[in-house]
Design brief:
512 residues, alpha/beta, Rossmann fold, Dihydrodipicolinate Reductase, domain 2, 2 domains, 17 strands, globular, binds NADP nicotinamide-adenine-dinucleotide phosphate
């Protein structure tokens, strides 16, 4: 049985890059993301032996904390959310490298204090001045933060060590215009090769292994085109409702929250051409080319190709739950979509005429994200002769979460004297085969930033290309206006309109 022992030499898709000793400054260090993902993620990397031995983490925020209380906050986050359980000795070692600087994001004195503290801390931690600034704060305060970093002299030039890098959390903008503005603000201070825009979906193990599956095996790529693929379905289903995020979600909706970023990134990896090298910009050029080939959906086409809907009251694990409009902090006449299904095409030689059906929603029956590539039917001869009961087609499914793995549906003969054909699944599960939980997406991505590998991050041009495409839909919705959206009961797979969208093509959504 192979074991998934982490090997620092494998960090980075592009080459054998090593994460370098560095300080990580988390703006918003006392916030939710920091507590749930970043601090536990760093602790896990240390436990796995892949975090550089010399590191420092500095939380920066207005919240009234000091080093000790920041360490206590980290401990609590690790106890609650970490992949690996809290080991007191390991935590003590980890905590020695945690620090906190209290200050406002627009306060120059706070940045001077941060610079001074970093200069004091780094020699003791063995950090040679490499610094990563993580903007784990709302987009509205990112601009001021970037400007203040520059004013305080905290940003070093891109081409000589020690390095300065910046991580920008999603959402990257609310629309094309605001994304351009944020990108321009960051670009005033940082060179593009210092900028790491996070889309944590790209850090998920299966999403990365898609590249390996496609380009490290000889059997898939020859079939990966319009000649053999009937259609592709990408699903990101969430079980939860809007929860406590209504203030954000009311302004966002499912298209902005899921499709414009995560689903399009997954689509890019699924559909991109083989890159001629694994260097970050070559891979990212090919991902962007998919976005450029996406046929625009705008104006009247939007009604034909896109379904939006909202969850109504229903049941979640047998418990009655309210509809979206009755959730706390949601307007009673809200028209924010909690579900989107759409059909799109990539107008290039490889994918000409192959529909890509994308869907995402809240309050679905279960949490599940997957890519399913359905191959064309076999000809109606030999075994596929009954027009009323055609054989089930081959489907290759990549499960992104949960239960990461791959499965291939194939037709086989039922044992016995008669020739009866039955579809079976060949199934590979990461958990079973490798016997260990995959690292969390944030762990992988943090390590990549430390190693300077931007392959799994979004480049400025790709962010703007995906917004350009999404704007066609958003603008059509805005022009049309609406007072009501189709409803689907909480705990169901979406509205009837979505069934019709795919049903009109003689196909149906996969049952997950
Ligand atoms: N949480 C997640 O799971 C998640 C997932 C994906 C992306 N993100 C993104 O990551 C970033 C941080 O998310 P989060 O959930 O950690 O957010 P959060 O807890 O609401 O905010 C993080 C910190 O930002 C500061 N802050 C919040 N609102 C502010 C304002 N109006 N002005 C100035 N400072 C403000 C607060 O720091 P102080 O009050 O202590 O100064 C807060 O602790 C956001 O951009 C979010 O969209 C989060």
């Amino acid at each position: 049985m192979p074991t998934a022992s982490p090997n620092p030499l494998t960090v980075g898709l592009s080459k054998a890059l090593l994460p370098e000793p560095c300080s990580l400054v988390i703006f918003g260090g006392a916030g939710d993301l920091s507590r749930r993902k970043l601090l536990p993620g760093l602790y896990n990397l240390m436990r796995d032996g892949v975090l550089p031995a010399n590191f420092a983490v500095v939380g920066f925020a207005r919240t009234d904390l000091d080093d000790e209380r920041f360490r206590a906050l980290a401990r609590e986050g690790i106890e609650k959310y970490s992949r690996r359980s809290l080991d007191p000795d390991a935590f003590e070692h980890f905590a020695r490298n945690l620090f906190f600087v209290r200050g406002g994001f627009a306060d120059p004195a706070a940045y001077a204090a941060l610079a001074k503290r970093l200069d004091e801390i780094e020699p003791g931690c063995g950090v040679p001045g490499n610094r990563i600034f993580y903007l784990s704060i709302p987009p509205s305060v990112m601009g001021v933060c970037v400007d203040q970093l520059q004013t305080a002299g905290l940003v070093r030039p891109p081409d000589a060590p020690p390095f300065s890098r910046i991580i920008v959390e999603k959402p990257i903008g609310h629309d094309l215009e605001s994304a351009r503005q944020l990108n321009a603000t960051v670009a005033r201070v940082f060179d593009e090769n210092q900028v790491f825009r996070i889309d944590h979906y790209l850090g998920k193990e299966t999403v990365q292994s898609l590249l390996v599956m496609r380009f490290a095996n000889s059997i898939f790529e020859p079939l990966w085109n319009q000649k053999y693929v009937d259609h592709v379905q990408i699903t990101v289903a969430e079980e939860e409702g809007v929860g406590t995020r209504a203030n954000y979600y009311e302004e966002a909706g499912a298209l902005r929250d899921m499709v414009q970023n995560h689903i399009l990134q997954v689509l890019c990896l699924t559909a991109m051409e083989p890159p001629w090298s694994l260097s970050p910009d070559v891979v990212r050029d090919n991902r962007r080319a998919v976005l450029q080939g996406l046929r625009p959906i705008a104006g009247k086409d939007v009604e034909q190709h896109v379904v939006r809907a909202q969850y109504a009251s229903g049941f979640h694990h047998g418990v009655e739950v309210p509809g979206y409009r009755n959730e706390p902090n949601v307007k009673p006449d809200s028209t924010t979509e909690t579900y989107v299904a759409l059909k799109c095409f990539i107008d290039n030689w490889r994918w000409a005429g192959v529909p890509f059906y994308l869907r995402t929603g809240k309050r679905m029956p279960k949490r599940a994200s997957e890519i399913a590539v359905q191959f064309k039917e076999v000809p109606p001869i030999l075994f596929n002769t009954d027009l009323h009961s055609p054989l089930e087609p081959n489907v290759l499914t990549v499960r992104i979460q949960p239960d990461e793995g791959l499965s291939l549906k194939i037709a086989t003969k039922l044992p016995g004297p008669k020739v009866r054909i039955y579809p079976v699944k060949m199934d590979f599960r990461y958990g079973t085969t490798f016997g260990e939980q995959s690292p969390e997406a944030y762990e992988r991505l943090l390590l990549d930033v430390m190693a300077g590998d931007a392959t799994l991050f979004m480049r400025r041009d790709a962010v703007e290309a995906s917004w350009t495409w999404a704007m066609g839909i958003l603008e059509a919705w805005q022009e049309r206006g609406t007072r009501w959206l189709p409803q689907y009961p909480a705990g169901s797979w979406g509205p009837l309109e979505a069934e019709k969208l795919i049903g009109a093509d003689g196909r149906k959504w996969r049952a997950l």
